[in-house]
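Today's session is about reading a structure prediction critically. Students often jump straight to the picture, but the first step is always the sequence itself: look for stretches that repeat, for charged clusters, for runs of hydrophobic residues. Only then move on to the predicted structure, which in these notes is written as discrete structure tokens rather than atom positions. Here is the chain we will use throughout the hour.
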Amino acid sequence: MRIAPYGTGSVVKTAIFCIIVIIFGIFLPQPGNAILSATALLFLLFTLYFYRDPEREIPDGKGLIVAPADGKIVLKQTVDHPTTGPGSTLISIFMSPFNVHVNRIPVDGRVRDLRYREGNFLMAFDHRSMSDNERMEITLDTAAGFIWFSQVSGFVARRIVCDLEAGQEVASGERFGMIKLGSRVDIILPASIQVTATEGMTTTAGETVLGQTGGF
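Below is the predicted structure for this chain, in token form.
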């Protein structure tokens, strides 16, 4: 199982902590020994599971926009956005702690702008978190126009990782970061994109098609 490079440090620290706990538990009488050891082992296994980074089959099709995150679409609505223009489509993907948390680029393009915003830590499924929570906002310059998306922290998730740089050329499905523990990713597509995603849909980052344009 591949572990996301963004989580290597956390996995190592967790493993060391769990080993210390198990060693300490050896000196406890039963059933305390077994309970403590089992708890530490389960915690380590969950950490490994959380930071898993499976390979994905990026769809090979002209003008496809793929999901930037694993999770469930909790909101889809038409918006006017200063970057993507009027009649754009907002898609919000909620990521539970059990989803893969590695984020991926939705479409080929160039990173036009990166903006880190400090904020609150509302529950990620609260739609106010889109504008009120800590987040990293990313704008891509693509053949379909500007596409805007945002990594949003949550009540538990308070660590956003994004290794993109302004001016960087990126490819559809390419890994670019992650949000640790429950969180959400919002993406806004311009009116030129024919959006096929629906509210309630389960998404797989880099594989699930959100929309398409013939303008490529």
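Discussion point for the tutorial: The chain has three helices and 14 strands.
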